[in-house]
Amino acid sequence: MDRHDIAVTGLGLVTPAGIGVATNWETVCAGRPTASLDESLADNPVRISSRVPDFDAAALLGARRAHRLDRFVQYALVAVHEALADAGLDATSWDAPRVGVVLGTAQGGQSTVERQYQVLLDEGASRVSPLLLPMQLPNMLAGQVAMECGARGPNLVVVTACASGTTAIGTARDLLLLDRCDIVITGGSDAMVTPLIMAGFAQMGALSRRQDDPSAASRPFDADRDGFVGGEGAGILVLERLADARARSARVHARVAGYGASADAHHLSAPDPQGRGVEAAVRAALADAGAGPADVQHINAHGTSTPLNDRVEAEAIERVFPDGPLVTSTKGVTGHLLGAAGAVESVYTVLAIEHGVVPPTANLTTLDPAVNVDVAAQVTEGKVDFALNHSMGFGGQNAVLAFQAA
Asked: DSSP class of residue 207?
């Protein structure tokens, strides 16, 4: 099978930029930041987050169903419903054993863990919910999606920290290339904005402390950046073989043209200071796609807004692309969605190709002089035939996807 013949036929989003693809795209292209002070973090050293707005799980999923699901699964299910509808797929009529689910998350049901640990402390072990493990386990993300839509093919969750969503999509593509599936529901979801997790990030010095101006806290590649803003959400893509999609007259948003992954093998949390790992993943994705640097018009960068990450990633981009495609980081709008980031940003990359629009990097006022790449400060219209999405994670995880116009 031609490695370029994997089609994206469905998209779904639940993020701080809104619920649904259309709302997200409008918010991201307008460059409207979503970060604000978070009352749930009132006792934390950093009280900024980017939350999904107006998310009513009971209304969207049913009260009884929502009560039995952690938020990281709730977000995914809502995004899956949108993606399947967008793909024009009917779960009651497909060949269920040939439908796979491959999703990424960095943590699983963290809010459930923290709530139930408090129950243990306050009320004792006999009061801990029997739903603790079904709600908390990371694999339940894919398991619940499979149960929701009757997908009985390969079912797995990958965990590569903040690269999880991108790794999941690359793995899903490989299942199609290996003819293990005809359809794969893929992407990522995370809901890690909890007091414990955010306290941990704050103690590491990873979070922005711009608490007097939270909407400006996430500012990738800006000279005045001081850390990331924690966010939450889900991004889902439906992948099929291009021939199958065309046979059923499905709309094809884009093609998954290539995938590359690597490990820094350097540090617990910091990227390789020369960016050799992410550079290797970029070159691997280009080689897998049969493309060269000159073919790339746009990069949705990992761009977390931390001082080291942005500089290292920019240096790697500069080495691979001396003439420079247009780079953006949509984390200026959404904050950092952690294990969901790569999946959400893959959807944005596909939309950039489909609409011929590169979103701006929100809050970019003064480009860091050490960043010698072309970072989009304004929304930019123009043909985008080929684009990359970069993801980097703690432990030196790097994953890069190449998308191509359909």
From this structure: B
